[in-house]
Design brief:
Helices cover 50% and strands 7% of the residues. The chain is an alpha+beta fold. It has 3 domains: 233 residues, no CATH class; 149 residues, no CATH class; 68 residues, Arc Repressor Mutant, subunit A. It has a 4-stranded mixed sheet with strand order 5-4-7-8, with helices on one face. Strands 1-6 form a two-stranded antiparallel ribbon. A two-stranded antiparallel sheet has the order 2-3. Helix 6 packs antiparallel against helix 7 and helix 19 crosses helix 20. The chain is extended, with a radius of gyration of 33 Å. About 7% of the residues have low confidence.
Length: 501
């Protein structure tokens, strides 16, 4: 077999991702607050863009006789006549930028209130300060304060500090105790604390932490957490401790008659003890600050006005922009300096790409939301029980976009509706046929299952087969294993575990 090299020509078409396309895709999938951060970064890096902080802008400032965009265009044309050089690219770019600036700052295309921030940045800063929660004490800080007050050997306190730093947000120690002090990877046991740690010392350090407030902190299992709290309760809790210690597995499966027989007491006595256990906290660390709460800002509002559903793309937080007069003046005075001219025109192009991407994001979100409102109209009027099955492919075909574009546009975004705040992907779900040419969504069926369980006879709860029969009576044909899967998603226990004696 002979191997040789040769040259040939061929024609082919392929998609090349330009900078503008990449930026548009990135802008499309950004939630509102991330988009605002991206725009603020462009304001820092692009000297041709600046904020308009005073009264609302209805039209971009282009009419100033000496330093506006129109003045630049006029002088460009005069220079072109004298030097006989075409300026079509410069003129087209500035005209396009002028058009984009008008569209960007037009209050009619933005969410209510976005064009009338008369107080400027001061009002926005004051509002942010007033709505920012004060930092709270974390569980780790709370435990470390107690550790500093106890009189124990420094070595024991050092080990306890390692344990405190390994607790999760709920106050549990999910890592095996000795793995905090030794690394056994690669077949070698490596000390993680100077001098190592014996099993006895580790248990003493854990016992020290478990004696701190809140009760139950430092537990490794829910069973241990309950026992720690019972042992520190006032009054007699010996029976409850024995119940949790010896019969926890039976309790988790609701085998009350078996427990009563084994302990030689009545079922009522077991239920009385469970009423005490029910007041214990199985997540003792949740009462303390941890990560800052994540506030959701809706990207889209759907309001009911005079019986009609109205869509607003939320751009309230986006800044009102204008072209820097200094940059335009420099472009005018240094028109013959190619280096300066290319730099400014590049920055003007960057500003243009930014605004085009955000405006395209606005239009895409509006088109997708309009389809959601049209298809899920009954949801917006009556609530989640009227949610219809809907696939992204269907919306993509209706608006003439690729399904991946629709998916990017919905990622991480929320919509404020008359029924509450929802992730935009909430409205896309499969479903089941009702046998009458209609269909019900998975979420609507899950809601029906939840409602059935709420009103069932607790002494004879509904089995999965009985739930299937009830749904079939409503015209929904569904398998028993699907009901079991939905029940688990709703964290609804089995019929045996729901039974009350």
């Amino acid at each position: 077999m002979q191997i040789s090299q040769h040259m040939s020509q061929r024609m082919e078409q392929k998609l090349v991702m330009t900078r503008q396309m990449i930026q548009s895709i990135e802008m499309l999938q950004l939630p509102l607050m991330d988009l605002m951060e991206n725009i603020n970064q462009e304001l820092v890096e692009n000297p041709c863009l600046e904020l308009k902080e005073s009264e609302p802008i209805k039209e971009v400032d282009v009419d100033k006789p000496k330093d506006g965009l129109k003045e630049i265009l006029r002088e460009e044309k005069e220079t072109a006549k004298q030097e006989k050089e075409p300026t079509n690219e410069t003129e087209a770019r500035i005209k396009r930028l002028e058009s984009l600036m008008n569209e960007w700052n037009d209050p009619s295309t933005r969410s209510n209130g976005s064009g009338s921030r008369g107080g400027g940045d001061e009002d926005a800063k004051m509002e942010a300060m007033n709505n920012t929660a004060a930092p709270s004490t974390t569980l780790e800080d709370h435990l470390m304060q107690q550790l500093q007050l106890v009189r124990e050997e420094p070595r024991l306190k050092e080990l306890a500090q390692s344990i405190i730093g390994s607790l999760d947000d709920t106050g549990f120690l999910k890592v095996p105790l000795m793995e905090l002090f030794y690394n056994t990877e690669s077949g070698f046991r490596q000390e993680l604390v100077p001098g190592g740690c014996s099993d006895e010392d580790a248990e003493l350090a854990l016992e020290l932490v478990q004696g701190f407030e809140p009760p139950g902190v430092g537990a490794r299992t829910v069973q241990e957490c309950l026992l720690l709290q019972l042992r520190r309760m006032a009054g007699e809790t010996e029976f409850e401790e024995k119940l949790i210690d010896k019969h926890y597995d039976d309790l988790s499966h609701n085998r009350l008659p078996k427990i009563a027989k084994d302990m030689g007491v009545s079922v009522d006595r077991i239920k009385e003890a469970l009423s005490v256990v029910a007041h214990l906290n199985i997540k003792p660390g949740r009462g303390f600050g941890g990560r800052r709460p994540q506030y959701v800002v809706p990207d889209v509002h759907v309001d009911e006005i005079d019986g009609q559903l109205s869509i607003r793309i939320n751009e309230h937080f986006l800044p009102t922009l204008r072209i820097s007069n200094d940059s335009l003046q420099l472009l005018k005075t240094e028109s013959k300096n190619e280096q300066v001219r290319d730099y400014i025109m590049g920055k003007l192009g960057s500003a243009m790409w930014l605004m085009e991407s955000v405006i395209q994001r606005r239009n895409t979100l509006n088109r997708i939301t309009q389809q959601i409102v049209d298809i899920q109209k009954e949801f917006f009027e009556h609530g989640p029980s009227h949610l219809k099955p809907l696939m992204m492919q269907e919306v993509a075909e209706r608006i003439g976009m690729h399904v991946s574009t629709v998916s990017r546009a919905l990622a991480g975004k929320y919509i404020q509706t008359p029924q509450g705040l929802f992730a935009m992907k909430y409205f896309f779900t499969g479903g089941f046929s009702t046998g009458e040419g209609e269909a019900e969504s998975n979420r609507a069926i899950m809601l029906k299952i939840s409602d059935m369980v709420k009103v069932e006879d607790k002494k004879k709860p509904l089995s999965d087969e009985e739930i299937v029969a009830k749904l079939l009576a409503d015209g929904v044909e569904i398998a028993r294993r699907t009901v079991a899967k939905y029940r688990e998603k709703l964290t609804i226990p089995s019929s045996r575990q729901r039974r009350e004696y």
